[in-house]
Automatic annotation (TrEMBL):
Keywords: DNA-binding, Metal-binding, Nucleus, Receptor, Transcription, Transcription regulation, Zinc, Zinc-finger. This is Nuclear receptor subfamily 6 group A member 1. GO terms for molecular function: DNA-binding transcription factor activity; sequence-specific DNA binding; zinc ion binding. It comes from Latimeria chalumnae (Coelacanth). InterPro entries: NHR-like_dom_sf, Nucl_hrmn_rcpt_lig-bd, Nuclear_hormone_rcpt_NR3, Nuclear_hrmn_rcpt, Znf_hrmn_rcpt, Znf_NHR/GATA.
Amino acid sequence: MDSPSVLQINSVGDDRVDQRTCLICGDRATGLHYGIISCEGCKGFFKRSICNKRVYRCSRDKNCVMSRKQRNRCQYCRLLKCLQMGMNRKAIREDGMPGGRNKSIGPVQISEEEIERIMSGQEFKEEADNSWSNNGDSDHSSPGNGVSEGNQPSPFSTSSSSRSVELNGFTALRDQYIGTPVSSPYQYLPHLFSYAAHSGLLPPQPRSLDPQSLTLINQLLTAEDLEPLGTPMLIEDGYKVTQAELFALLCRLADELLFRQIAWIKKLPFFCELSIKDYTYLLSSTWQELILLSSLTVYSKQIFGDLANVTSKYTPSDDELHRFSEDGMEVIERLIYLFRKFHQLKVSNEEYACMKAINFLNQDIRGLTNVSQLEQLNKRYWYACQDYTEYKYSHQPKRFPELMMCLPEIRYIAGKMVNVPLEQLPLLFKAVLHSCQTTGVSYE
């Protein structure tokens, strides 16, 4: 008998379940467990780890490969990936019995600091005397869990052999003006690509697109304004743009993009199903994420073309370069990564519309009055997007998980950008757009 904690995927038929794969190890998935598509093994491991307040250690580089055959070799990296992929520990019943609570569809937003507290045991501090042990777990025979020396890693830790990010032209840009190289060893984020590289997915099977999925997606597309942005971004050759002028342009762009999101909400097919209060909470919590997603996809030609040309006419001062924050450097790195990821995927308008709706319908936001309805709506578009992607791109069986794994990254970047001082935004955009232009992508 199936566990009641599993949300069965009835909307697309039981024959589709066999085609789904676990986002943690690539094994055959059995449904949604604690918020993400996963197998019974990873579901049980995650539940045991949280209920028993396990604190694991990795004897390697805290970046072990997760696959069906290798998932038991390192419990630390397995739990880390569960958290990175969005498994919701709050959906586990406190009494440890079957069945979940506060189920969440899709990746759960969780900060680096919160993941680090869980992995280091800080989250379980009150019961540390009783739980600071690995004994008793059914995976205790795994050979890769010896205690390692050193600090706990960030949730996006990479192997020691990973190259430091060069940020393309930004390092040279900074050297040019102040003569000192960027010393911080910022590294690329391997956790999104690692799934594609190591998960052993089953070969795609011929299938058809559910008509209901197509209807839902077409309704979302109707609500979208895909016309080019109207904010002027043309500049005369030889003109030198000041920091104030570039900041003003960025503000005008943000205003237009935000206005389009407000208009989009009013056209949504489920607009009448939620209260104005809930829409206010949702928009106030996700508007930066929605703008970022649209800038990286449907408006990327103008952002990485026209706006990049404007930022190239702006020369930062030595003081601006010296005072650029650590948060700003991290945002630059992650934005460049996402740009390359989206350019590699070539996200379609249909996928963009679904990703946007899924991100917007975030039932973890505080103050919402109708969480259950949000959950149902989120699930509706989650499966519509999966249905469409697996049908349209059947030769890319890993495409849908890769798309969904970009959403927590967008949330994280949007949250980090709040910490970047406003006066540093012109330099941040110049660095990102300059670096992305040097990748050889043409938007002419």
